[in-house]
Every structure is written in C-alpha cells, then in structure tokens.
Sequence to fold (87 residues):
Amino acid sequence: MKTDTKRAIGRSPAVSILSDREIRCLQLVAEGMRSDEAANALVLSREEVNQALVSAQEKLEASNLMHAVSLAMLIGVIDHTDPHQPK
Fold:
C-alpha cells in the first residue's frame, strides 16, 4: 500500500484524524523511545501505546511505524527537532 503524500500534507492534513494519544506516542517514538519507555512516560500500558501507534499508522496509511513517524513530521503533527541540539 502506497501513501498518498499529497493527501497527507495537503489542505486537509491528517492532524485532525489523529488523537492526542496517538500524537504523543508518535512524538516519543520519534525521540527514540521504545513502546515500554513511552508507556512509562505517558503512564499507560505498553499495549495501550502499541494500539495508539498501530491506529496512527493505519490512519496515516503508513506502511510501517517509521513511515508513520515520517509522515507525522511532514504534516507538522509532531516536532522533528533534536531535543539534544543546543538552541
């Protein structure tokens, strides 16, 4: 399945279809956390985090989790700056 990137970053971005939980989970994965680490940070179970990530991946029509993270960055849903870089 190929994602229609124009649809993903067009006038009606997928931002509105992603839940806050899905966005927070994608952000933590983008920062390098594993699902168990994200679960601890968000005070959720690992299964809840995994469900949110799978749901986000499906909503973004991504082929895998890293593709979902990349699309979320492209459409501006999650921040893609390196938190370890000096400002």
User: Anything to note?
Assistant: The longest helix spans residues 46-59. The chain has five helices and no strands.
